[in-house]
């Protein structure tokens, strides 16, 4: 007698294509929804380009605040499409402080590009919120509407409505979680006053009379996305402070002094290229995201690859600034300009302005080190070798710069702070080391999808 296996096979197919994985709350809808990799990343890259403009033009977005905003936008972008990536796990339960994200109905069809559009536009409005200008809000609104009109062509209205709602529900849940991380609406009070600096010789002092207080002294207690990025990524103690001309600290400051006096024209150009001053540019994090935008475009990345790449970078940048700021205010180390003017040469001048926060360690070095690990993971075999020209600063009037390895690019960024006279070399080398640890943790401590298309 011939057995009929069709009923059992049908049940098996249903179980596979509509599977639930409780640990990470994954619901696969691949059986009825087009996979995330079938969509273009154009709209996602364009949103992050818009992030740069808005960050630059919004009050209160110093480097820590900017990194946080990019962080949550990147996470929302990923979560809105993760169910369309084969084998992918939600960041819920993997990322610290992200307990639950809405799940799609496995029996329904979704358009992940439409969900992404809705999620990102909402999160951008949420992150800049009270300080978002009328013009920038209108730009987000019009971008969302134009994207939706373009993505909706040939899509049924019920799929459009369901996909929009899903994207916005995802962002609402993530935004709610963000309100308890310690940085909620921090752009309204970036100096976190009241704050009293220690009154000791080694301590940071204002380097600009117009900015008498240091930026975000309590940022280091914010909740990171990966706990190990703060608890295990810890700077070594800085060189012991001394004003003795024979001391190691004096020699360290003298190295800065001599470097500025003997800078080449190219070194001065490097200083300015990597300055990334807030309100004149979109901050160091914005520069790094602009590099990612360019890399994704060069590689014709799909929505799947772009969403994974931006999420990794988002987590790395956010955590790099929390970890860095924790160390900065643990040691509150005096800046080279203050030390040199007082103990070496009162006429000393830096190449660019010194940022209003302590020296040790360098935020630029931290974040570029973290970003390098993400670039290396996404675009190389692990060597970092990649023929790349950074065109991202053309918008600010700088010539493009070329690199053959991402590590060389990060090192140049770190060295720029030494050439500029605003950081001791140890600030940069230690910051770069720790930033790479942060990026490595992001790559390894989260279960990311494999065989990304």
In short:
By secondary structure, this protein is mostly helical. The chain has helices at residues 6-17, 42-56, 63-79, 112-128, 134-151, 157-178, 228-231, 248-261, 265-273, 283-298, 303-331, 336-343, 363-379, 406-419, 425-445; strands at 20-21, 26-27, 385-390, 401-405.
Summed up, the helix count is 15
Major β-sheet strand ordering: 1-2
> Can you tell me the overall shape?
elongated
The stretches of 5 or more residues where confidence is low (pLDDT under 50) are 1-23
Total beta strand runs: 4
Q: Biggest sheet, in brief?
A: 2 strands, antiparallel
The helix fraction, in percent, is: 40-55%
Order of helices and strands: HEEHHHHHHHHHHHHEEHH
Percent strand equals under 5%
The radius of gyration is 23 Å
Structural class: mainly alpha
Mean pLDDT: 94
Alpha-carbon distance between the two ends: 46 Å
- Multimerization status: single chain
């Amino acid at each position: 007698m011939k057995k009929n296996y069709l009923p059992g096979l049908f049940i098996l197919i249903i179980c596979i294509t509509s599977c639930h994985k409780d640990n990470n709350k994954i619901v696969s809808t691949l059986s009825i929804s087009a996979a995330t990799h079938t969509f273009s990343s154009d709209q996602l890259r364009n949103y992050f380009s818009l992030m740069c403009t808005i960050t630059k033009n919004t009050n209160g977005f110093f480097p820590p605040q900017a990194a946080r905003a990019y962080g949550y936008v990147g996470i929302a972008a990923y979560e809105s499409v993760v169910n369309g990536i084969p084998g992918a796990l939600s960041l819920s339960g993997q990322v610290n402080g992200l307990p639950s994200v809405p799940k799609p109905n496995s029996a329904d069809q979704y358009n992940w590009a439409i969900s992404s559009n809705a999620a990102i536009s909402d999160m951008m409005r949420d992150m800049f919120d009270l300080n978002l200008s009328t013009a920038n809000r209108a730009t987000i609104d019009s971008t969302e509407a134009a994207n939706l009109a373009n993505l909706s062509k040939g899509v049924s209205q019920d799929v459009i409505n369901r996909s929009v709602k899903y994207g916005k529900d995802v962002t609402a849940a993530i935004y709610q979680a963000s309100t308890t991380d310690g940085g909620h609406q921090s752009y309204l009070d970036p100096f976190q006053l009241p704050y009293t600096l220690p009154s000791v010789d080694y301590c940071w002092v204002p380097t600009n009379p117009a900015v008498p207080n240091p930026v975000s002294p309590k940022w280091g207690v914010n909740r990171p996305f990966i706990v190990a990025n703060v608890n295990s990524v810890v700077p070594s103690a800085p060189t012991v402070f001394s004003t003795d001309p024979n001391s190691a600290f004096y020699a360290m400051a003298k190295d800065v002094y001599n470097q500025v006096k003997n800078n080449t024209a190219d070194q001065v150009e490097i200083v300015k290229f990597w300055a990334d001053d807030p309100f004149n540019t979109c901050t160091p994090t914005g520069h790094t995201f602009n590099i990612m935008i360019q890399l994704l475009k060069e590689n014709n990345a799909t929505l799947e690859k772009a969403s994974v790449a931006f999420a990794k970078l988002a987590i790395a940048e956010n955590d790099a600034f929390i970890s860095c700021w924790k160390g900065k205010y643990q040691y509150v180390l005096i800046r080279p300009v203050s030390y040199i003017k007082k103990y070496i040469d009162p006429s000393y001048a830096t190449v660019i302005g010194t940022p209003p926060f302590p020296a040790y360690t360098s935020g630029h070095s931290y974040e570029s080190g973290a970003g390098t690990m993400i670039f290396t993971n996404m675009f190389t075999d692990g060597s970092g070798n990649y023929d790349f020209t950074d065109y991202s600063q053309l918008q600010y009037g700088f010539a493009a710069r070329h690199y053959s390895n991402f590590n060389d690019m990060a090192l140049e960024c770190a060295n720029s702070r030494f050439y500029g006279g605003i950081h001791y070399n140890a600030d940069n080398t230690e910051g770069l080391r720790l930033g790479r640890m942060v990026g490595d943790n992001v790559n390894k401590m989260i279960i990311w999808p494999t065989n990304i298309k």
